[in-house]
From TrEMBL:
Organism: Halorubrum ruber
InterPro entries the record matches: 6-hairpin_glycosidase_sf, 6hp_glycosidase-like_sf, DUF7997
Name of this protein: Glucan 1,4-alpha-glucosidase
Biased composition (Basic and acidic residues): 1-26, 206-217
Stored Pfam families: DUF7997
GO biological process: carbohydrate metabolic process
Domain DUF7997 positions: 1-255
Molecular function (Gene Ontology), one example: hydrolase activity, hydrolyzing O-glycosyl compounds
Region Disordered: start-end pairs: 1-27, 197-217
Similarity-based family: Belongs to the glycosyl hydrolase 15 family.
Amino acid sequence: MQLRDALDDYKRHAGDGTRFPGERRTVSGRFSGGDGRLVHVGDDGELRDFGYPLTGRTGLVRSRIGLAVGDEVAWLDEADTTQRYVGDAALVETVHETPRATVTRHDVTLGDAHLTRASVEFAEDASGDDSADGADADPADASLVVYARFAPDGRDDRVGQLRYDDAVEVYHADEHDFLASATGFADLRGQLPATFPELLADDPTDLPRDRDGDRYEEERLSGEVIADVPFSDGVATVATLLTDGAETDREAARDRLDALFSDLDSVDALREAAADALPSVPESAPARESVVADLRVLSLLSAPSGLRIAGPDFDPYYEHSGGYGYTWFRDDAEISGFLLGAADAVGLDLDDWHARSARMYVATQRPDGSWPHRVWPRDGALAPGWANARIEDGPDVDYQADQTGSVVAYLARARAEGVDVDGLDRTLVAALAGLDRTLEPDGRPVVCQNAWEDSAGRFAHTAATFLEAYSELGRHGEGLAVDALDDPDAVPGADSLPEDLAAHARDRAREVYDALDDLWVPERGCYAVRETLDGGIDDRLDSATLALAAAHRSFDAVGAVDDERLDRLVSHVETVVDGLYHDTDEITGLIRYEGDGWRRADQLSEKVWTVSTAWGANACAELAALLAAHDDPRAAEMTARARDLLAHVSPGGSLCEPTTYLPEQFFDDGTPDSATPLGWPHAIRLATVALLDDELPQFADRAAADDD
């Protein structure tokens, strides 16, 4: 997104009650991708690239597609439009109904290339009947009009174009972007971006403009092109390709485009190519539509490295958020863990995904055994953030210790599942030393930032991630030894580790388990969200504390959860779910925490979050499994709660968009908001479906009876 686009959106949406001006929203439309490049196909058909964090290439920042008949252009974003995914893959079909014709588009992103195949079917009166739209034209004169603005290297200035018979190359320095047509160009021109007077005007500027003969330089000195693409047998296909000039020369780029046009000359060919980007989902999979949607989203958000962005970055100027197009190790490791746990239960082959994740966690670990705030997913390099206390000088308060806990829990499980990557044992040993250094003598983690990144203290959620990490190391850490470290003296705290690291981890897990009593609030029947900086207890309800359910299930495998703790966990989960439950005429789900004021706009109350609602469903299911293992009859009721909450984020639920996407948040009137789709709740949904089907099927009849 360029500043010009942000200002244009600001003009269009300033003062809106549920839209934050200056953003590039993705709450409608669908994405295509799965192998790096990420292209948004708006519900009006506009194409935009969102894959910079995944590939380092900016690509398309604006586009429009129109149908030209004679001298008149009908822009497809102004037509009645319907959209869907074709099958399981990320192949997007968009149907535009114009007065003259129906245009059916199929969009697919393959690697760094994106193809748009448009077929046109003219109405019977499209030729020679002035009553159709006031013009007399021959459909044989029709062409597809493509307006595309590229920003190579993220630039909209100092950009140039090279022209070919069937392609145009837009470049700045390293990034070279191509627009090509299978049928060549009937006409091709450029234009300069919005001018200073246009930017300063009160009204937004409609683009593209008409040709201006006085601005000869605009034909070559900008990233904006307008092309007329002829139809052949009613079909026109255009493609864009993003390249690094040092890696792919222009001849190779043009050969690649020619091969794509030759090989992908039908909708069936596009469908088959798109299907290769996603793992196959068995027909017998539970809640198959939901599972397919979750895998599609998680694939879309993944870089070739295996790291994922949290969601498409709708606010790159940080006007209303801190950005989303980065990898947080909390979200990413939680997603990895959910996938690891669900794969066999659902019948998925995700071995490559598991290994890629583990390999990148090994590569991005810091020398002190921790992980940084957030990184660029394409290569793991440090990304902009505000919680890098472990890198900067000064106190460690601005550090998110839960991220390290989440990574350790995943890596320990992955090791047990046979994921074998270089350096895994070394990473786990260093991480164990890092966990110990951030555990206070009282058995709870140090003061740090919380999961929501908006306050500091000693949090129940952070303690839950430590309990889970230590428990998983204690369960799966046999054979780990300090001598796995290349240089033990270089890892702070490694010299104090004992010989039996698995037993040590189990002892630490017991310490955290016992210390959680310090956060119990009997008056509310729940665990406090945190101990504050002044030593007080913050007893607000917070959905992040629902992580205690899964953490205790991990601990039960190494230390046994006692009856009193089971009672407290049941009380805690019920209190949090009931207390955060929010129901309107349009939506039902859980708010994030009591008093949450973020991105409310004109709404007076807290907004519902999909991750909190999905977390509630998963916590109820995890607790049900724990109760069932203890022959506790409350497992049935907890399973019913899980299914109820899961329904709200499942296809057909009020928090699941018709696109099958889960936006991060919703306003009370049902308007979706913020990052869409958000990967974390999709992974939680997938894991919860698998858990309910695989470990709690005995309670399915009870749930069906309750529904009746």
